[in-house]
Design a protein that fits this description.
The chain has no helices and 22 strands.
Length: about 300
Amino acid sequence: AWGEKENDFKNSWIHNFSLSGTSKILKYISLRPRINFREEWITQYFDADSIDSNGEILNKKTINEFKTRHVGSLSLSTNTKIYGLIPINIGGLKSLRHTITPSIGFSYRPDFTNNSFGYVKKIYSSNGNSELFDPFQGSQIGSTPSAEQKNMNISVKNLFQAKIKEGEEERKIDNLLTWNINTSYNFANDKFPLANLSSSIRAKFARKMNLDLSLSHDFYKFNNETGQRINSINFNENGIPSPRLINARISTGFRFEGNKIGITSETMTQEDSTTNSDNLDEPNFGSRSFANNRK
């Protein structure tokens, strides 16, 4: 991809390059490596040579010269599919098919403000204090990416499909119920490396209605007195992690169709949706907002 931003005084060019592939392991497991590379050019950046005793930059100046920066990341993901068939004979429901897609991925991005890359420099005050100075901060391409990332992403997708009988005919419902969950762990973080557990559920009823539920759980303990998280996993009495529900959102959608009076070739469609959301994050437990939308 090629990007360009331009005005009367400065220019920048951005080149994005990615390389990826897919291979199979034992015929059932997909493996996807990926490399992302980004090259950035600018014709205007900044420079400074010192700070004051409070850490404020002194003698900052604009340099109208060509300068480049190269950043990138690596990732590796793998997934598979597990199928199950549940024979059921309840009313018109004849069978259920359950597809589970577990996935795990690893990604790495270095701290590009590290001295080994040479993009930032240390500047000093008269009393010997130092600060990092980023010549790209405030330019068209923005600050140099910092904070090393070593992420492991985990997700599980569940899909339920159904086969029902209507009279003498059989019909399949491809998306009767979906339930997706995901979280991640950043090995480069010493504090709160485990991300919240996010869940989304969608169910369809009678072709005209769907129900959506989104949940967010926090793995860490919470101090009700201070109103702050504690950098310690919350376990139950059996030693199993017990995430706290901190956010819930539910929405419904309806679809109505009918012919206009005197016109049989056109269809009128009206949708009605209602959304409720509960924010359960302490200390504002139970605060709610409601929204009704009608079209």
